[in-house]
Design brief:
The chain is an alpha+beta fold and 150 residues long. The protein has a single domain (3-135), classed as Gcn5-related N-acetyltransferase (GNAT) (Aminopeptidase). Helices cover 33% and strands 22% of the residues. The chain has five helices and five strands. It has helices at residues 16-26, 33-41, 44-53, 102-111, 127-135; strands at 7-10, 60-66, 73-82, 85-93, 118-120. The chain has a five-stranded mixed β-sheet with strand order 1-2-3-4-5. Helix 1 (16-26) packs across helix 3. The chain starts with 6 loop residues before the first strand and ends in a 15-residue tail after the last helix. 23% of the residues are buried.
Amino acid sequence: MKDAFLSIRRLTRRDGAAFARLVRAAWHRDYSGVGEYYMRTESLPAKVRGLVGSLGGRPWRWLGAFDPGTGRLVGAAGALTWHGRYWLGDVFVAPRWRRQGVATRLLRALLRGRRGPAYAEVNARNAASRKLVAKLGFRVVLTDLLVRRP
């Protein structure tokens, strides 16, 4: 399971079923502030349908990491330009492949060749995500505050 041998490529709609399986396997409570909001307002199947629907379209750009031995999708990360800013979006890594550099390789690939700043939302309780973005040179500019009026 060495990450040096992973194959990274852009995901397309044909990857939808594998992407949906990965999202379901990788989802956890400390996913992100927005992720927590989604989990309270919509079901995981609805979230998965929305993510799969964004494959191959704009404004999202999704990359996948594939195990060269099996061809199985083991990680995925997305980015988009929103209101003139480049945002790293969701990152999903299969539980068995975590802590092996998969997310790092995916995010570096999404950042390669980018000029100007990039942004990412990270849940303050997700230590692994905080460590990952710090390793990639991100710094905290504000903390999330998601409010909802009853």
